[in-house]
């Protein structure tokens, strides 16, 4: 069997400081241009030159206000604040590319499924089937309060709500319009055929919907579904719904274990083990030689902000690290925390966390020559069963340019990275099959069937 | 005083059949390409060539299901169904233009103000200050049911909610970040200054928000505010909030009266009478000679669908015209109806409505040579006090091309239309002043002041 090809997303966010904090102060870093359209269209074209499978856009509603009990450092170092809407970047980037996929984070907790379904269908149309959705429910208290809630909804309860939300979306995306509903027949004056467009009637615990999906069938119907949950409940959700899962990682053994859990979750839901592609976040610093890469790393560190890194960490875990001594280990556990982060870093001292969060943060950091970086990437893939990476930015767009000019050719020369895009939708490119959800996926069960739809003209 | 220059928006919608129904069947009509990005980027470039002030994008949540008690004709003639999200068109169009403004309809009833505020700020950033928002609250029963409500909220109550929604938005857009909050100072490592970003605390009848606006100040902060209410309560709302008001129209006297009411509403709210620009919808069929224009009109009529026109009318008024005899006048009045449409057409017979809705619908239809059309447009402006037009499409993009090639030069030769864009934001272009809300506008009162904000670090 041929060795597995590496899948690759750029990992980014519509903000200044994303993962590798403080580098916005580097003279060559352009992340402070994030409010400008050209910053994003240039990036999209760059990534397409590098044959990236996708651009994965993170998002957060709310602010990081745990560290020092406020947002002072968050503002100074621009730690994911300000942060603009990621969905609105996609149409402009789609307009200047032909193949690049877009995995966009959207929080389902604060938007009715009916309008969200239309938003994603619109993107799937405009991108010609290149859109994915990273499903999140949010965990920040500050977001819940901004939305008028007293407090954040409890973790597992959010997943129950998400399960129902997805069910409503499948009904709208998969079940409302039959494949041959749209004729666009000018002679017979039939744009869409009555009887082939069905009213969705949903009455559940969280949602109630009675209406026709507003968009006609888009190339993928359901966008490619991304998810990042690592808790038991999160994995149950992933097994049912996710097609791509995004994980953090510290070492091969832990990642191997997590990959296995993700695959087991798919199998438990009646899907093939490889129905889910697993991506790990990673930061790469590469140069023509190892020495040059080490120098670059040292130079980047001059601008990095380890303190901003642990301020971010403080909100992810709910633990204010400002109150900790340098050699005090992190053992506290909060209710509303990102479980994978807690899992990876429990027992670490603040000193070690500061070092880790200077560059890399919750994801591994690979430094070296093109061959060395390729070795490390392929070892991750081959030793853990991973499918690919979400590549963070360090100094941007420099770090993507370096990767594309140096690592991509190295991976290609080893036969481990594509040398051209395939035609077709994002789902087709990722899985080599059709554009639609596969038969075994939970969403496929909602394709126009008598029991969950009703003729429009009755 | 120099005669008033004509302001001009293209009036469009992310769907096939918008106002002049049935013309999608015309061999040269391209509206069935609305799912494709290039359809919109081509249109934006065309409109910028014609120096249009803006593209006004209508929207509807829900379907037209009153006529014949269902959506059969709605589907066959594609009467605003399918209809995709309009906001997502803007970034792509902004990427291929430099001056064109975008007035986008968004229904406030089903989205929390906190996330909507970020969406619009993101658009204002990406367009470099070219975005406007057409404020609607929705009126369709079918939309309310799709959103999980038992029934549509009562008309005046929706405006009460809208007033509070706007108050929350002003607090976020105008009050959360001070003008000099963002320094982006790499040397001092200060992206934004603590103490200059304020938490909004709102507790009202409909909304409760406690949080920082997520976007840094955009060029216009508050997008240019469009509105189309013509009821007494709607005019009260317009007087407080609207900067551009969009009206229908049948004759000079009725339009003059409506324009006067709009201006009076501004004055009643303590604003100058010309603080609101008033636009009327209009359809234009123009050709080099009058005879050719009449021929074109006759040819278009071969493809028009008067029945689709009155099906649309039926949902706008809540009256199923399928049940009416040809000579029966419309006198019924429904609770959830578009008041301006009811007002204009009460007493008309179905026969006359069918004729009117073949082409033009609820807006006047101007047919003729370039000089004749210019005469008509200028008569509307000069006789009624209107500021400009929302130009519907007939056969698209042909009708915009005709207008730009034939009518624009005629208006320019009379000194009544700009010959080049001014630099600056949409608000600056429309009002010739700054980019921000003027001092007298209700929203300006919410600029960072001690009583409605609080230092982030207290």
TrEMBL record, chains A, B:
Gene source species: Zestomonas carbonaria
Major enzyme class: oxidoreductase
Annotated ranges, domain Luciferase-like: 31-387
GO MF, any single term: dimethyl sulfide monooxygenase activity
Superkingdom of this protein's organism: Bacteria
Taxonomic lineage from the root: Bacteria, Pseudomonadati, Pseudomonadota, Gammaproteobacteria, Pseudomonadales
Enzyme Commission number: 1.14.13.131
Keywords on record: Flavoprotein, FMN, Monooxygenase, Oxidoreductase
Similarity comment: Belongs to the NtaA/SnaA/DszA monooxygenase family.
Name of the featured protein: Dimethyl-sulfide monooxygenase
PANTHER family attached to this UniProt entry: ALKANESULFONATE MONOOXYGENASE-RELATED, C2H2 FINGER DOMAIN TRANSCRIPTION FACTOR (EUROFUNG)-RELATED
């Amino acid at each position: 069997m041929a060795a597995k090809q590496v899948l690759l997303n750029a990992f980014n966010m519509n903000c200044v400081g994303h993962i590798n904090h403080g580098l916005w102060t580097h003279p060559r870093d352009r992340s402070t241009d994030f409010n400008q359209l050209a910053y994003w269209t240039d990036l999209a074209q760059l990534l397409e030159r590098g044959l990236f499978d996708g651009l994965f856009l993170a998002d957060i509603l709310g602010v990081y206000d745990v560290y020092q009990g406020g947002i002072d450092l968050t503002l100074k170092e621009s730690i994911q604040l300000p942060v603009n809407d990621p969905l609105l970047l996609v149409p402009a980037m789609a307009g200047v590319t032909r193949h690049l996929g877009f995995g966009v984070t959207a929080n389902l907790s604060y938007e009715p499924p009916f309008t969200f379904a239309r938003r994603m269908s619109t993107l799937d149309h405009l991108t010609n089937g290149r859109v994915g959705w990273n499903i999140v429910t949010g965990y920040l208290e500050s977001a819940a309060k901004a939305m008028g809630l007293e407090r954040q909804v409890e973790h597992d309860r959010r997943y129950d709500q998400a399960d129902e939300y997805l069910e409503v979306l499948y009904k709208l995306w998969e079940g409302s319009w039959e494949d041959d509903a749209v004729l666009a027949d000018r002679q017979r004056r039939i744009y869409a055929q009555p009887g082939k467009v069905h009213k969705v009637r949903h009455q559940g615990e969280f949602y109630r919907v009675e209406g026709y999906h507003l968009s006609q069938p888009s190339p993928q119907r359901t966008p490619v579904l991304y998810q990042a949950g690592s808790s038991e409940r999160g994995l149950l959700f992933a097994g049912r719904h996710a097609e791509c899962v995004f994980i953090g990682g510290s070492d091969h053994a832990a990642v191997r274990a997590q990959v296995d859990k993700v695959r087991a979750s798919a199998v438990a839901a009646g899907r093939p083990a490889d129905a889910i592609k697993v991506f790990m976040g990673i930061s790469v610093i590469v140069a023509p030689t190892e020495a040059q890469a080490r120098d670059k790393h040292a130079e980047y560190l001059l601008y990095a902000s380890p303190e901003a890194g642990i301020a971010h960490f403080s909100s992810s875990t709910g633990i204010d690290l400002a109150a900790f001594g340098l050699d005090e280990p992190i053992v506290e556990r909060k209710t509303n925390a990102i479980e994978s982060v807690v899992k990876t870093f429990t027992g670490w001292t603040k000193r070690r966390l500061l070092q880790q969060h200077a560059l890399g943060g919750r994801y591994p950091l690979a430094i070296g020559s093109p061959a060395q970086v390729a070795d490390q990437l392929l070892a991750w893939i081959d030793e853990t069963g991973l499918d690919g990476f979400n590549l963070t930015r360090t100094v941007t767009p420099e770090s993507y340019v370096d990767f594309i000019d140096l690592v991509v050719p190295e991976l290609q020369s080893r036969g481990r990275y594509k040398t051209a895009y395939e035609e077709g939708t994002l789902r087709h490119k990722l899985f080599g099959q059709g554009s639609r959800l596969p038969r075994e996926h939970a969403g496929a069960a909602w394709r126009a069937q008598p029991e969950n739809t009703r003729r429009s003209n009755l």
